[in-house]
Amino acid sequence: MRIYGLMLENIRSFKNEYIVFPKKGVTVIHGETGSGKTSILMSISAALFGLQKEGKDPFRAFAYPTGKDLLRADALRGRIRLLFEHEGRVYLVEREFKRSSNSVVNVDRNRLEEYIIKEDKLIKVNSLILGTEELNKRIREILGIKERAREKPLLFTSVLYAPQFNIHEILSLDSEERGEIIERSLGLYKYKEYKNNSNAVRDVIKDKIDELTDKIDGLKKKLKDKNKEKLLEEKQRLEKQLKELEKILVEKQKERDELDKRIKEHQNRLRDMERRIGELQSRIGQARKQEARLKDVRNELAKIALNLGKNASTGYTELLEELRRREREIEGKVRELQDIESELVDKRKEIEEELNEAKRKREDIMMRLGRLEADEENLTRQEQELNKQLEKYRDLLNKGICPLCLQPIPHEHGIKLIDEVQGRLEEVGKKIRELKEEETSRYKELEDINKRINALEENREEVEEKLDKVRRDSTRLLQELLSLKHTAEKINSLVDEASRIEKEISEARSLEEELARINSEKENTISIIHELEDKYREAKEKLEGLIAEKAGTEKSIKYIELEIQDIEKEEDELRQLEDEKKFHEWMDTTMNILDKLVDEVEKRVSLEMVSEFRRIFYMILDTLLQGQPVEVGIRDDFTIEPKIRIGGRIYTISSLSGGQNIAISLAYRLALNATVRTYSPFLRKTVLILDEPTTGFSQELVKRLSEVLRKIGDLEGQVIVVTHDELLKEIGDCKIMLERDPINHVSKVREQECDIEEFNKFKNLVEGLLRGSLQVDTVKMEKIEVEPAGFKPEVRLGAGTVQQAKRKSLFDFHDKPK
Questions:
Q1: Where on this chain does Zn(2+) bind (predicted)?
Q2: Is 754 annotated as a binding residue?
């Protein structure tokens, strides 16, 4: 696991700040006391494992922070976003906290986003909203951390993170807890789990072998009581008997089928006869009924002849000729009426055209009269106005005043104005007289037109009356013609019907002879059918007896076969049980061998890991405690045995000085972290976080620790160190300096100095993800399978092959050469 970045909102002294960590190397966080250095590490722990419960230890918050430890005093809500990478995938965790009464709780809607790096692109493959417990469980699954159910994430605070004032905790734990942490971080717990599982499996296998032995013994006894050979002999005898019965059955079935066939043939003949007899009786009966109908037909023909004025005995040919003559006569009259109708229609059309023309002229005259009356009315108004004007002018002239400007004028000028008005008055009068003369002429013309219209309308009514009469006469004649045609058709129909009836009556005599002959044949056929049916019943009874006997034999054979099948099933079951018992016995033997092999592998792996741990521990301890007469033994179970050298002899002691204890605890943590990064199946190349690791150290010891951390950082590890020590600060590939506004109590990143290639590009990328402003591709996936951590079979390749497998990704940035 590598920590990439952190966003803090209202967390302790931080209001809203982003901190980015390089992928590898040593990052040193420094600043004055209270500037928020440890707050960053507490936030990483809270983001990964959630809030912890409160305790009495005053230094507890540095390792296991609660909500009260994290939420800013003047805020109601706070938020942490953590971006980290694990096994090639990048994860963004967001937790939000809120103040509730006297406590601070984790809001139960937390975010977890998952990204993959493909072809130098960052692709989001999952985005989940989870409850607090769900998120805690998911993070542990992702990191492969499996611990017993407990409140504190001891594996994290013992192997990856050394909290402030808590470096010695790894050695102060009881042996069971420390042993569990070492086993789980290094993957050794798998061997213990295997042994427990193996014992449980072997117990099940032994129980299964005992169970199979009991079943095998019971089946052998059961098979011994049954005689399979005797059953096979009885089956053979019955099968021979069944073959003989089947042969006889075939012969009897053939005999029965032949009788059945003959019966059906005679029954079919009998049905044909009965159908023919029915037809003959029906036709003869119908012929008898037709004699009365023939008389009715002849009476109808006589009645038609009388209606036509002929003798009742007149032949139908003469009647038809008379009808055709009358039709020709009526058709001639209809043609004459049609000619008259055509003439009347033409005449009516001429009258209507002339009438329409007269009405159009009348409309024109009436419109002209309307215009003349309007003009006359206008001229009359003008005349009246001119008369009034003339009277006014004369009155003003008598007073010596101009009618136009109302100024005094000469009398001659006034006379001239009056003459002008009189001239206009005469002109208007003349126009009025002309209009009245034209009105008189137009009214005379209108009177003549109205008389002509009345005369034309009378003529049209007369033509209409004649036309109606012609059409009524034509319709009456056509109806008479239609009646004559219907009469002719009826005569033809009656004549045809009479001929048909006469023919049927003639044929009925020969049908009676055929009916008598078929009735005789019917009686003979019925007698033959009765005789065959007696023989069929006899054959059927014999056949049913043979079938019953065959069924009994088959039933016996089936019963014997079932008995044999049961025996064979039991024999198969016995073989399967014996094979299964052998298999379980083989499994028990194999498990015994595997248990011994696993014991040996566990010993060798454990010895290899403890040897590596000793090597790293002694290397670190020698660096930290150079010249000290202190020696520490590391037992095979990773417990320590402090010793001291006095005068050339080594003595085991119960305790060391405070500084020596801190140095040993720190060496133990660093060695365990390095061993885990080498051997752990889920924590390879993981982060190492140290919070004020030099507390109580002399400057010389700080310098030696710097050398150790520098070596760890050079091994492609990620080391995050919080310190206020100026000497330790210098080892950082990346230095993050914090400052705090003492008035507002707000911490900020004052500066970040990183001697890492393309770090600014990396920083922008991380901050973009933390802010949610970075545009990334999204892949919809139903479910992201998280591969559980644990024992994984490995094939270790040669160096060349491993190098070929490496490829540059979006997050691969390399140190500049020193």
A1: 402, 405
A2: no
